[in-house]
Design brief:
Strand order of the largest sheet of chain B: 3-2-1-4
Order of helices and strands of chain B: HHEEEHEHHEHHEH
Number of strands of chain B: 6
Number of strands of chain A: 0
Structural class of chain A: mainly alpha
Shape of chain B: elongated
Largest sheet of chain B: 4 strands, mixed
Helix content of chain A: over 70%
Oligomer: heterodimer
Radius of gyration of chain A: 18 Å
Number of helices of chain B: 8
Structural class of chain B: alpha/beta
Helix content of chain B: 40-55%
Largest sheet of chain A: none
Distance between the termini of chain A: 55 Å
């Protein structure tokens, strides 16, 4: 029997919410959790509208992740735009704060990693999240992001390299 | 080289997992409730039930407008497969009780017509008009496909009439079994076991 929409919600809501939360809800903004809830609702709404046209043998999970990624990209662009507007004001203060840190506690480290991940290009961020936090394999990631497996691997490699160099610089 | 590469990867992934982690259960369940609530409001509700009948297991389903599906002599999964997979399907014998009571009376020979609201809005206007004509055929009578076509003012449309009758979502209640071929044969029937069921229904009504 073909998958019903209520089963789709039941099976995949939690992982889609977690995916969006990892992509967007982690940057310390007070309204971040609400944003992720709104976005999760939006993902299922879009999925509902196009569910009828989906072939029964499709990979429903990858299809849902694809919709979630599109929604997240749009939101990430909005956030980046907001940040860019504020960055010139905050830039000098941030530099002073970083210079005054003597040791990096675990909490600070987590904050730093989150900041580094948020600086990654959207595709690298999506790739690395799908691979290491959502535990998806490369064929599925390629399907979700409409790219080749090589491109998905390259994006993960670039993201890991960038994060490693930045983190090693702080050790 | 590979070992160094994987060490670097493990180092970064460890920090990544610790920093991005997992969402709080409260946020997760709040979102789950919200999506489920939206779906309950958005998706049409279809309630269905079943009964045993002389033609095998019989299934009936209602929506907010009325009886929208009926079938018999098939598996439950086959019956449920016909519905748009975005609808909410609920097995609720109470919701279809009125339908099943009238069908039991019909099979017992105590009822010849039905008094039920029906919903055939998913059909095309032509299909609907064919089924409306079929509802005018009295129990114990049979009309030919040609006669139905004539009633519609389209005497050359016997074949499309047959096609429309084959798409009747509510057999028995909309008596498409009362339409037969001009050569005296039964024609076709898509309900239950096909022509065997059609013959049985016409015999019950005294038309054969």
């Amino acid at each position: 029997m073909a998958l019903r929409f209520e089963e789709l919600i039941e099976r995949h809501h939690d992982e889609i919410f977690a995916y969006l939360w990892r992509l967007l809800g982690n940057d310390g903004r007070r309204d971040a959790a609400t944003d992720v809830e709104d976005l999760t609702q939006d993902v299922f709404l879009r999925a509902f509208d196009s569910f009828v046209g989906l072939r029964p043998n499709s990979n429903h999970r990858a299809w849902l992740y694809k919709i979630a990624t599109h929604c997240a990209y749009t939101q990430l662009r909005r956030i980046k735009h907001r940040r860019d507007k504020l960055s010139s004001l905050k830039h000098s203060t941030a530099e002073l704060e970083t210079a005054s840190e003597i040791s990096i506690s675990r909490k600070d480290m987590e904050q730093r990693v989150r900041a580094l991940v948020n600086e990654l290009p959207a595709k690298q961020k999506a790739c690395v999240t799908l691979r290491y936090l959502q535990d998806l394999d490369y064929p599925e990631i390629a399907q979700i992001l409409s790219c080749s497996q090589e491109s998905a691997r390259a994006n993960v490699y670039q993201a890991i390299r960038h994060l490693r160099l930045a983190l090693e610089g702080e050790r | 080289m590979t070992t160094q590469k994987s060490k670097n990867e493990v180092f970064v992934v460890k920090h990544l997992r610790s920093a991005l982690g997992s969402p709080m259960e409260t946020a997760l369940s709040r979102s789950r409730e919200r999506v489920n609530k939206w779906f309950a409001e958005e998706a049409p509700l279809i309630q269905w039930g079943e009964m045993s009948s002389p033609l095998g297991p019989l299934f009936a389903a209602v929506n907010e407008r009325g009886l929208c599906a009926l079938d018999f002599g098939r598996q439950e999964s086959e019956f449920l497969q016909r519905f748009d997979n975005r609808t909410r399907l609920e097995k609720d014998p109470k919701a279809v009780q009125r339908v099943l009571v009238q069908l039991r009376e019909y099979f017992a020979g105590d009822r010849s017509s039905f008094n039920l609201p029906v919903d055939i809005s998913q059909l095309t206007p032509f299909q609907r008009s064919v089924l409306e004509v079929a509802c005018r055929i009295a129990p114990g009578q049979v009309w030919t496909y040609h006669r139905v076509a004539e009633e519609l003012g389209r005497p050359r449309s016997s074949r499309p009439v047959g096609g429309a009758l084959a798409r009747n979502p509510i057999p028995i209640v909309i008596p498409c079994h009362r339409v037969v071929a001009s050569d005296g044969s039964l024609g076709g029937y898509s309900g239950g076991s096909g022509l065997k069921a059609k013959r049985w229904l016409l015999r019950l009504e005294g038309a054969l």
